[in-house]
Amino acid sequence: MKASARRPFPFVLLRHWIASYVVVWILLAAVVFIVQTVLSAFLHERDDIVRMLEMFDEAPFFKTFIGGDSLMPTNVLGIIAIGYQHPSVLIVLMINAVTIPTGLLTAQAEQGLMEHLLARPVTRTRVYGMVAGIAYVSQAILICVLLLGTTIWTRYFDYGEHIELDGFVDAALNLAAMSWAVVSISLLAAVFFNERGRAVAVLVAFFVGSYLLHFSIMYLPGLKFLRFITIYNYCDPNRVLNAGGPIWSDLAVLGGITIACLTAGWQIWRRRDLFAA
Question: Which of 27, 162, 195, 257 could form a disulfide with 181 if both were Cys (CB 3.0 to 4.6 A apart)?
Fold first, then answer.
């Protein structure tokens, strides 16, 4: 029998880690819900939609950020879906994805706390699995909050037409797949670097750089050939709505990134010397 099989699952440690992030999650969820609330409240009047789009026409850079040419007065679904690619929502998901792995893996190893933790009846695989599980589940919960906001406000406000939620469920699934890929990339960086500051700096540079590249590709058609190298290319709620269902090729790419980075991170974590000075 393996040693890990004889060790009880460390529920106390899991509860402690979850409790340490509850306040952060409440704040992040509030931001997500407020973004969708503001968008829904402002856009339920057709005149407000027209005025907003006229304002965006004068700021094409910003319009590109939140939907581009798909934003039209007649495309109510596309306008409501702004929240699923709004920079504020993407920043919230990035903060959550980067904070958890670097805080629970890199920082504790850097401070020497991981040595004491592994001296208890808990294995490296369980530590890595718990951190990954906390990050994945919390990302899913934040996206459920976004979908909940969509559900509540599309029923509360009158948009002049019946709003089906199926397309937003598909958009939420696509966003969840992208956010899980972000988590796996963060896990890989968290176990690869010995210093939390360096891991965070590399991740922020990577995600911000990828987003700016994605934005540049959207705004400059001549760069379209680069679209496949940024993960944000595979998360487009308007494309999902227009397709009438999940875009399986995008989900496959994001799923592949998630599994590959998760597995690579686990292999590095198993072999990493946590006790070196």
Answer: 257
Of 33, 30, 25, 28, the C-alpha closest to 148 is: 33
> Does residue 202 contact residue 189 with C-beta atoms inside 8 Å?
yes
Nearest CA-CA partner of 35 in 73, 110, 85, 99: 85
Distance (Å, whole) CA 39 – CA 196:
36
Q: Count CB atoms within 10 A of the CB of residue 245.
A: 12
Tell whether the torsion through CA atoms of 165, 166, 170 and 176 is positive or negative: positive
pLDDT of residue 247: 93
What does the alpha-carbon distance between residue 51 and residue 89 come to, in Å, rounded to a whole number? 23
Distance CA 232, CA 66 (A): 12
* pLDDT at res. 137: 97
Q: What's the rounded Cα separation, in Å, for the pair 213 and 142? A: 25
Placement of tokens 């965070």 in the chain: 200
pLDDT at 1 over 70: no
Check pLDDT > 60 for residue 276.
no
Structure letter (DSSP) for residue 147: H
Band (63; pLDDT cuts 50, 70, 90) = low
Compute the distance between CA of residue 257 and CA of residue 127 in angstroms, rounded to an integer: 21
Spatial distance between the Cα atoms of 25 and 31, rounded to a whole number of angstroms? 10
Q: How far is CA 264 from CA 95, 149, 274, in A?
A: 22, 36, 17
Q: How far apart are CA 76 and CA 89, in angstroms?
A: 20
Backbone angles phi, psi at 230, to 5 degrees: -115, 135
Question: What is the pLDDT at residue 113?
Answer: 61
- Percent of the chain as helix, strand, coil, to the nearest 5: 80, 0, 20
Token pair for 62: 């910003």
Residue pLDDT, tens place only, 144-174: 999 999 999 888 877 777 788 888 999 999 9
